[in-house]
Amino acid sequence: MESLGVLLLRPLDTYLEQELDRRCRLLRLWDAPHDRRGEFLRAHALSIRAVVTGGGSGAGGDAELIDALPRLEIIVCYAVGFDHVDLTRCRERGVRVTNTPDVLTDDVADLAVGLAIDAPRRIPHADRYVRAGLWKANNGYYGLTNQFSGKRVGIIGLGRIGLAIAKRVEGFGCPRTRQQAYPNYTYLPTVVQLAAVSDGLVVACSPKEQSRGIVSREVIEALGPRGVLVNVGRGAHVDQPELVAALAEGRLGGAGLDVFEAESDVPQVLMALDNVVLAPHMGSGTRETRKAMADLVLANLEAHALSKPLLTPVV
Amino acid sequence: MTPPAAGADAKPLVLLSQPSDSGLTPVMEGQFRFVLAADADAATAAEARVLFVPGLRPVTADLIDRLPALELVSTISVGLDHVDLDACRRRGITVTNAGATFSVDSADYVVGLVVAVLRRVAAADAHLRRGSWATDGDYPLATKVSGKRVGIVGLGSIGSLVARRLAAFGCPVAYHSRAPKLPPCPYTFFPTVRALAADSDVLVLACALTEETRRVVDREVMEALGAGGVLVNVGRGGLVDEPELVRCLREGVIGGAGLDVFENEPDLPVELLDMDNVVLSSHKAVATVESIRGVLHTVSGNLEAFFAGRPLLSPVAL
């Protein structure tokens, strides 16, 4: 694929970038200053046949970009979520799209369950408390939190990641409920009903238009002042202003959040709370998984260049 | 004021080894007459059959020997390293502890620490709260939890619950114990802590602190654990050679640590405060509403059983 012109929208991973540079004709969008990007795209439009994006809000792949690249054949996402890509426009233009499912399932599930424990058990808060000298200043006092094991865990979205979360949660003797039909787990037809019977709610659904705002004010109220919300899906799944208010006012017990409405913009109010754990969208942020994701991106690009079947197509 | 009449209505006497800072004694005050051992007059000291230990301050041979009628020492903790067990043995005194009351919360906390250390949850949260996600970008890549080899020192009540939890994360589990567990224990046994460490990516300490286990994690064990290895301790600070731990972390001999306990709480080596591959915690693995409620049940159950001549709930073999 040495002749394949690939546009990388932003720095993602050193290994991926080096391989792209070595094996393709790589162009880096950030070589152009922000206000000259349109010019950059126009200058290179005829040679760009592939675009590589990251994930999360603002990752690129919108209609404007697609329209600026008349020779575009494929968008390869270094992410499992592809909500940042305009799939309708891709279908219209015959542009293929791939993502990186499966290779990051374990990492996201590990983090989700880690957040589900670290938030109510206040582990990061204790770390800050000790580092600030407060454990010593308060003569060894900390205070009590709530047990995790045996609590009812509701999972929104029982796809690959949701199932991996359920498997881990089983090890803690937590009864599982979820908002999707599956044998052996109790199914609730609406998210509000799920929240009403859960002590902890984990959002693990894929980013579709129907899931936008699925964790609404009503859901948050049903979860209640002792409930904990964990989100490893998308910030858009949750009514964020409502979530922030509920946490600050004690109407929701706690939260573990890896994703936000607009990353990396985290509301100041959240940053001051002890009952939340905040993570900078690192669900797949391990060396092992990012290498596997990079290899999958490269394998999809190579398959495309050789006119072979794509490994993990979305469109 | 008329002194309380002796007889069927009199509440049984229980001495306290230290003031109770956990709020338990007010709840049990309806059932027992609590007197601080340090405040007990000669008659009270001579009469006392039970000593309740509501904290971790040392219970010395000196204190035990001042109580000639002592038959039972009942602790609120599961650890007994602060009690002079030799003195208890010598006097034929029975000891009860918290039993398995705290095991679930301890095991959950271990898992929370393992994820927090390997995935840098605490450090990344701090990065975000400092505003660095917005200015400096993503937190550097961490390492995967699933599939890491977990070695548990002490496969007792806590250790076996840790094993079950981390096995569900796809971690192969091995252990060291005084003796191998009988089948069908699915985990691999290692005859020494060093051998276990050599075959582990995460070394979890879930054993009691005794003369045999004091500083069991020394430089040799940490070198065996290795540069990619992580130590998690919810047992006692005394299980680890703490100055050596600091050196090993600084030199990269081991890759990180999750520490809920320290040799001299609430003091800890100041060098740890600058390290972002370490998660520090304020000895709170068992500090939940549920555990405190549970241990109240255990302690009052033990005391009631003792005074009624019934079998104790959680006696410890000395």
Automatic annotation (TrEMBL), chain A:
Range of residues in the leader sequence: none
Family indicated by similarity: Belongs to the D-isomer specific 2-hydroxyacid dehydrogenase family.
UniProt keyword annotations, A-Z: NAD, NADP, Oxidoreductase
Any GO MF annotation of the entry: NAD binding
Keyword NAD found: yes
Alphabetical list of Pfam families matching this protein: 2-Hacid_dh, 2-Hacid_dh_C
Assigned GO CC terms: cytosol
Descriptive protein name: Hydroxyphenylpyruvate reductase
The keyword NADP belongs to this UniProt entry's keyword annotation: yes
Domain D-isomer specific 2-hydroxyacid dehydrogenase catalytic, residue spans: 44-314
Annotated InterPro entries: D-isomer_2-hydroxyacid_DH (IPR050223), D-isomer_2_OHA_DH_cat_dom (IPR006139), D-isomer_DH_NAD-bd (IPR006140), NAD(P)-bd_dom_sf (IPR036291)
Domain D-isomer specific 2-hydroxyacid dehydrogenase NAD-binding: from-to ranges: 114-283
Automatic annotation (TrEMBL), chain B:
One Gene Ontology cellular component: cytosol
Domain named D-isomer specific 2-hydroxyacid dehydrogenase NAD-binding: residues: 111-285
Family membership: Belongs to the D-isomer specific 2-hydroxyacid dehydrogenase family.
Protein name: Hydroxyphenylpyruvate reductase
Species of provenance: Miscanthus lutarioriparius
GO molecular function: glyoxylate reductase (NADPH) activity; hydroxypyruvate reductase [NAD(P)H] activity; NAD binding
Keywords: NAD, NADP, Oxidoreductase
Xref: SUPFAM superfamilies: Formate/glycerate dehydrogenase catalytic domain-like, NAD(P)-binding Rossmann-fold domains
Pfam families (UniProt xref): 2-Hacid_dh, 2-Hacid_dh_C
Signal peptide range: none
Annotated D-isomer specific 2-hydroxyacid dehydrogenase catalytic domain residues: 31-316
Domain of life where this protein originates: Eukaryota
